[in-house]
Amino acid sequence: MYSEDFRNAVFAVSKENGFNKRITKIDFTSSSSCKITVVSNQGFTNWSFHVSFDVVNNYTISSENTDSLLPEAFAQSIKNKLVNRDMEIASTSSMYVPVARIHQEEMICPKCKQQIYDPTTEYCFNCGVRL
Length: 131
Hints:
Layout: H1 3-14, E1 23-30, E2 33-39, E3 46-53, E4 59-63, H2 70-92, E5 100-101, E6 107-108, E7 115-116
Antiparallel strand pairs: 1-2, 2-3, 3-4, 5-6, 6-7
Helix pairs in contact: 1-2
């Protein structure tokens, strides 16, 4: 994942799905994580949550308000944007690179050298190259 793609996904999601009414501040803490400050349902207080993504678009959340569903919905929306972007890049790529097999069930992407866990996948989830 590239930091620009992550930032674009965060900003896009923050403007849709009703998130724009609750989000008051976005702080990027690294190239793939951010702290989101939101206004409470009543509008009297603010609270925040932190979302961090890894290279295969899995995320972890820490939140000051463990009862709220907003952090999970926000993180899932970001993940959907990133996965859709990856699939779009992969579908428009004309580059075809054969997969290097380590063992019968394990594969490594020849471009980014990341392990491919699903032997039926057509594209590397890390770099988007067609396998």
